[in-house]
Amino acid sequence: MAPVADNVGSAHRAWLDPLRTAYLASGLTLNELSSRVRFAKSKISELLRGVGLYPRWEIVFRLADELGMPNWPLYRLWSQAALETHKSSEWINGCIDRTTLTASHAAPPLEHRAFRELVENDYLLYAQVFLDDDQRDIAVADTFDRLWLTWNQALASHDTRRYAWNVLRTSVMARTPHRDGRPELGSAAFDTVALQTLATTADHMDQLTETLELFTAISRLPDRQLDVIVLRRLCGFPHESVSALLGTSLATVRSDERHATRFLESVIPPPTTEGTTP
């Protein structure tokens, strides 16, 4: 199967990648799949590569149903991507109205529901550092929909928590503004507990400038170190909670924090005390 087209956006890939994975795991040929769902092989090939017009829900549903995928999270991701490709709500609703094949509200696996209850609030805090409220909620909801679609792969991975965190990070970073290839910690970061406390200080403007410089420096950290610093310094999580969220050892978290702190101090050295002798 040919790779996904380069111009396919992240929201589109959020449901397309799991669909491609399910197809490859099925062992079916395109000819076999075409005869089962009664759509032309060329149409299915285009859909699986993300080329041509954005697909209507009917064909996505039929493919997912044949491949044994849960259709409710797939529908939510499909409709979200449709909006981001500038399809109207009328078009999306029309796709459903024109067919009797609708998305059922089946419940996710019990383990998935338990995992979501355990980590959802923490995921929202992390996403809040990069995104406004609406984008934060969409990114985290997309994360759990993608996990639902790939839950078997998550359970079979080396560490389900690490697998889930990578899905969250992908969802958040896809919606985060970037500059020079690095994520920007924008105004949403000022909603964190640490910065709300900062705003009560008397020298607010000076510290505000220092904070913006710090955000720029944090954005330059390698991905893993950036996540550790965001979770530790901006979200206020203890080392043990960061380790659990990332699915990495406590020693790795502490090592990443040390390296990140050294870099940040080299970029933004602590202020010198006036009146001290050299």
General description of the model:
- This protein is mainly alpha-helical.
- It has 3 domains: 10-97, 434 Repressor (Amino-terminal Domain), CATH 1.10.260.40; 111-179; 182-267, Arc Repressor Mutant, subunit A (Orthogonal Bundle), CATH 1.10.10.10.
- It has 15 helices and 2 strands.
- It has a two-stranded antiparallel sheet.
- Strand 1 and strand 2 form a beta hairpin.
- Helix 14 crosses helix 15 (250-267).
- It is elongated.
- The mean pLDDT is 86.
Number of helices: 15
Structural class: mainly alpha
For the record, the count of structural domains works out to 3
Mean pLDDT: 86
Q: Which residue ranges are poorly predicted, with pLDDT under 50 across at least 5 consecutive positions?
A: none
Per CATH, the class of the largest domain reads: Mainly Alpha
What is the architecture of the largest domain at the second tier of CATH? Orthogonal Bundle
Taken from the alpha-carbon principal axes, the silhouette is: elongated
The strand order across the widest sheet is 1-2
CATH topology of the largest domain: 434 Repressor (Amino-terminal Domain)
User: What is the helix content?
Assistant: 55-70%
| Oligomeric composition of the shown chains | single chain
The tally of strands reads 2
CATH superfamily of the largest domain: lambda repressor-like DNA-binding domains
Largest sheet: 2 strands, antiparallel
- Estimate what percentage of residues fall within beta strands: under 5%
